[in-house]
Amino acid sequence: MNVKKAILASMIVSGMLVAVAGPIPAGAEAAQEQKQTDNKKVQIDNKLAAKLQKAIKQYAGKEIKLKNVGEKIESSPDGAKVESVDGKYAILFNVGSGGIWGIEEIVTIDKISKEDQEKVLKVLKGAYANKTYNFNKEVIMHRGYDGDKEKLGVTLSYKLTGKDFEVYFFKENTPKMPKDEVSAFEIRFTKEELDPKLLETATKAVKTAFNHDLEVTAANLNRFTWTLKDKDVSLQMENGKVTNILHKTRKAVTTNKEITENVAKEVVAPLAKELFNMDIAGLEVKWDSTYKNYYFLKGKQIELRVALDADKNVVFITSGVSALYGTPIGRL
Fold first, then answer.
1. Which pLDDT band holds residue 321 (cuts at 50, 70, 90)?
2. What is the pTM of this model?
3. Which UniProt keywords apply (predicted)?
């Protein structure tokens, strides 16, 4: 979501939109965009710069000029990267400790053997056969780095991309970890490409949970998990069944003072039954003060996790393995 959409979504939720006489002024919008960009920047001091230069020289075997400002990695809470001036290399590090954990280089597809390319294609076709997978010429090669010992690590992987897909292939790894295999992939789909039965199940679940008509704007397959989204909701499915569903604009309560555990159980019970065919009558419900939601236990096993808004509407509900996580899995 870009900044403009994020601002509008926030305003809609808070009811502020009706008080706005017109569109956001261009200057204010530009200022917000700049603030967002600035928040992603990571300043690099002389000590860290020296470590980065040492690491990139170890990897490339020559001096590489790096940019003097890094950028935070969205998918990593403390991660950041700094690119080379020519854009060919990037070094990955932790903002807090300054520890380096990886180096990336843009290489060509012929860096990967035909045999390994066939392994990757086999996985993609096995996941979804009715698509054509042609690799882009450029590939991102990732070499692990031991920040404590300040030397190149063992792991070597590649990120291959193409029209509507990306895939990660581990070529080398530590002795106890797999190698020569795909570690993850994502295949993207339009609404028209989706299986009608899958779409019907997703649409029904969204209507049940949120009384919302799903209008798919994005869909992807990641390993065995399907993720479908529109501007207001996201859901995940495995083996044709919904496991995780989230309303993006509802605001979850942050305490259990207004909605007690017992009340939450009463509210959630019919939905759990309808969505997951799960009877939660015998489950123990507890408030998670860290993640600000309710979780349901069978013995010591978490079976269900739910967040509610102040009107007792579901913000998100997740079952099975996904419920072990404090927040919706997979960054819905």
1. confident
2. 0.80
3. Signal
